Amino acid sequence: MRNLRLIGVLLLLWLPLKGFAVEVKADAPKTYVVVKGDTLWDIAGMFLDKPWLWPELWRNNTDISNPHLIYPGDVLRLIFDEEGEPQIVVERAPEKPFVKLTPQGRIEQKARPIDVLPFDVIRPYIENAAIMDESEYEALPYLLGNHEGIERFVSGVHVLGKASRSGETRFDVIRQQNVVRDREGNKLGIQVRHISEAVATDDDLDKQQLVKIVDGHIEAKRGDRLIPMQEPEVQEMQLIGAVAQRGFLVDSLEQHGLLGKFDIVVIDLGKGDVMPGTVMGVYNQGPNIVDGKQPKYANEDNALRSAFEWGDEIVQPSVKVGELVVFKTFDKASYALLTKASNFIRVGAIVARP
Hints:
Number of helices: 4
Shape: flat
Order of helices and strands: EEHHEEEEHEHEEEEEEEEEEEEEEEEEEE
Number of strands: 26
Radius of gyration: 25 Å
CATH architecture of the domain at 123-228: Beta Barrel
Oligomer: single chain
Helix content: under 10%
C-alpha cells in the first residue's frame, strides 16, 4: 500500500514515437491559446484523431523554458516543416510569478502547467483509493473499539486499535471495498478506500494502541485498517499508445453496469505492463457463433440441442467502442479513465492498442 496517497500533477514527459505517421485533423486550428482548465488530452484531440501521437506533433520546442510542459497563456501554432510534416510550435510570454499577500508576507507562486487529464475527475481515486495485496492488507493493525462502546468513530474520538510495529504515530485509516479478480477468477488484489486519518496518543500499551481520529470525512468503524501515513508522491505521466499490451476491463470503481466517458475503470494489467499515460483502445467482442443449420450463439442455453446441430464455431471480430488512459498503476492491475466511448462499455471489454 505504498501509493495510496499518490498525488500527481501528472506532468507530461514526451516519449519518442518515430515510425508513426501523424495526420492532423482537417478542422485543426492553426492557432490556439491555452486557457486555464484545458487538459493536454483535450488539446491533443483538437489537432489529432489519435491524441496519443501528440509527442510527435509537439517535437522538442527546445527554445523555451520547460519545453515538455504547457501553460495557460501559451500560444500553440500549427506549422509544416520543409518535408511537409506537421509540427506545433509554442509562443510563451516571459514567466511572471503570481504574488500572493499573506500575514507572513509576500509569497511568489509559479504558474501551474495544465494537467494531462481532468484532475478533478481522477483526483479522488489518486488520493483516496488503491489496490493492494490481500496479505499486506490483512497484516495491518486495525481499530477495535472505544470506551463508549460505539461502532462508528468521527473526528475527535479516541479509539483502541491493534499496536503498530512500524513505530509510526500518524496513520491513514483505510477500508476494504471489494476483491478485484481477472476473468478467470484469480485475485489481482483488493480495492481499498481512504476513510480518515488517525494519530497515536498513548505508547504505554503493549499489544494495543490508543489513536485519535482526525480529518474524518467518512466515519471510521471497527475493523478498519491503520497504515502509516506517507508524504504524497508525484507520479509523472508519459503519454504513449499501447503496442503489444492486451488485457481486459475487469472492474468499475463506481460499480456501474454500463460505462461511458469519464468513468474510472480497472484493467488487469499492472505496472510491469503499462505506465501512467498509456493509451489503450477498448473493444467489445460478441459471443462465438455456431454455424449450423440454425445459427446459434455458443453461450445459448439449449439442453435439447443435438450433437448433430453443432457446426463450425465462429469467433466474432472485436469492435472498437472507446479509449482509455491509464493514470495509476499497481502490481497486477491499474486505474484508467475512459476518455472516449462511442457505445456503452461493460466489464469484460478487451483493452489493447488504440
